[in-house]
Amino acid sequence: MKPTVTLDHTVMHVSDWDSATAFWRDVMGADIVSTPHGAVVFRFANAQLNLHGPGAIGSPVARVPVQPGNSDLCFEWHGPIEDAQSHLATHGVEIELGPVNRFGLKGRGTSLYFRDPDGTLCEFISYVDDAPSGQS
User: Fold this and answer.
1) Cα–Cα dist 132/54, whole Å
2) For burial by CB atoms within 10 Å, which of 2, 7, 95, 109 has the most?
3) Model pLDDT, residue 129
4) Count of alpha carbons within 13 Å of 93, Cβ hemisphere only?
5) Within a 10 A sphere around the Cβ of 119, how many other Cβ atoms?
6) What is the pLDDT of residue 130?
7) Radius of gyration, alpha carbons of the chain
């Protein structure tokens, strides 16, 4: 019998708490939630980014701690990809690639790629637009 599971959280490393918090709150729309241990997590509608950062130790579970910029995360943009482009420009975030065709959770979409302050690769995918010609 196939189990029913959903993604609860993933872990990302940040090198500076303040710049990471500002980026993930203002650019990505995360809710910043304090944990009972005095740390923070970045929470989205149905998933959470737990954080390793300065002073954080991933052991005993993490064999090799997550490094800054070592993640690759995709988020659905709920609207036309042009709105995502404008949003990123407003926040001074450089687009590295896109818009390009991609295949995600909901099938074919249009994506933009950019990075957080630590170099983590971020992607906005929109399923609203007709995808432009390009890689998939």
Assistant:
1) 41
2) 109
3) 63
4) 28
5) 12
6) 53
7) 16
**What three-state secondary structure class fits 25?**
helix
Percent of the chain with pLDDT over 70: 92
58-106 pLDDT, tens digit each: 667 777 778 888 899 999 999 999 999 999 999 999 999 999 999 999 9
Which two tokens mark 47? Answer: 């998933």
Helix or strand or coil: residue 75?
strand
Specify the residue for token string 């790629």.
113
- What CA–CA distance (Å, rounded) separates 44 from 31? 6
- Nearest to residue 136, comparing CAs of 107, 96, 116, 114? 107
Q: Is the peptide bond before 60 cis (omega within 30 degrees of 0)?
A: yes
Identify the sign of the CA torsion 86, 26, 19, 55: negative
